[in-house]
Write a structure and sequence with these properties.
Layout (H helix, E strand, L loop, with lengths): L2 E3 L4 E3 L4 E2 L4 E3 L8 H5 L12 E3 L4 E2 L4 E2 L4 E2 L4 E2 L4 E2 L7 E4 L4 E5 L10
Parallel strand pairs: 1-4, 2-5, 3-6, 4-7, 5-8, 6-9, 7-10, 9-11
Antiparallel strand pairs: 11-12
């Protein structure tokens, strides 16, 4: 029950967890100008910006990822967060708009047994 709305590009890395009701969009959905919306025109190309989700990212239920956002590797997006700008690797963001609430330990390499 997720929605990915791509006018150009949405890239999702390896081993990501995406919960239900997540919405990821690289566009606004309609022109900002009322006359253009009324005419049924699509979103103008200049209003479409790619979304990039890194590797090992966890996106919580009901989160919204807006156009132009880049989410770094191993980041966590809290449930119902609205992500409007870049998220650094190894961070937890939450809220509306999403803000960093915690830094995570950096990339861990599994120990050899």
């Amino acid at each position: 029950n997720c929605a990915l709305i791509a006018g150009c590009s949405i890239t999702v890395g390896r081993d990501c967890l995406i919960a239900g009701r997540v919405r990821i969009s690289d566009q606004d959905g309609h022109p900002l100008d009322a006359e253009r919306r009324r005419a049924g025109e699509p979103t103008p190309a200049e209003c479409i910006k790619p979304v990039v989700v890194g590797n090992d990212v966890w996106i919580g239920e009901g989160a919204v990822i807006l156009k132009g956002v880049q989410i770094g590797d191993r980041a966590i997006v809290g449930a119902r967060a609205v992500v409007t700008k870049a998220v650094s690797a190894d961070t937890v963001v939450a809220g509306n708009p999403a803000r960093t609430v915690k830094s995570l330990p950096g990339d861990r390499v599994p120990s050899a047994a």
